[in-house]
Sequence to fold (245 residues):
Amino acid sequence: MPPVGVAAASGGNHGVAVAYAAHQLGIPARIFVPTVSSPAKIERIRQLAELVIAGDRYADALAAAEQWIATSGAMSVHAYDHQATILGQATLALELADQAEPLDTVLVPVGGGGLIAGIASYFAGTTRVIGVEPDGAPTLAHARAANAPVDAPAGSIAVDALAPRRVGELVFPITQAYVEDVVLVDDDAIRSAQRTLWQTARIAAEPAASVGVAALLSGVYKPIPGERVAVIISGANMTPSQLTD
Fold:
């Protein structure tokens, strides 16, 4: 481990995780986030690590992090396009399988693709994996249409976590092999799903974490009778006011 520690760019959730792990291990960490990151995520990172707000979008924060890594020698902990990150995300699928199998389908939020790549690589075709993206940030949908990672729009209320502009180079071939389909949901459906999760189950989910439920409630994904569907709810770094907006 270099003396300067680790560095990561994030819309927020990955940054919180890296900051927490580094804090627990006593390792210096510098986390780069864009201005669109939620105040809750920014405050949590600030409590645990050195925080740098760089640019308006994830791509800006990533560029700043890469410059710092190149000049400082810090160890990079990429948010999605790194083998160790993908393997770490795969442990979620291991836990899900232990708790809920047999499963037919898993709905997974998609941003840069690390989460869905890990889950898909674990199931490796034994369970149907469906990606869910905001229609304002269709990174994997655009990549599949182009048969390669390409830039996509970076809009939506879930922009802080699900709009990195393009999926990872390591991520894409895994999704091509093991992700059956990608569906898109709009912001109204995401907001509705977020409120429904809170009102019916007292689950505080950020917009990015609500896209799978949005796909079910809006009918974008329609299970067949008897289909066992799991939905990944991927984060709760939010402010309570979001639940009543």
Notes: The two ends are 44 Å apart (CA to CA). The mean pLDDT is 90. DSSP finds ten helices and eight strands in the chain. Residues 83-100 form the longest helix (18 residues).
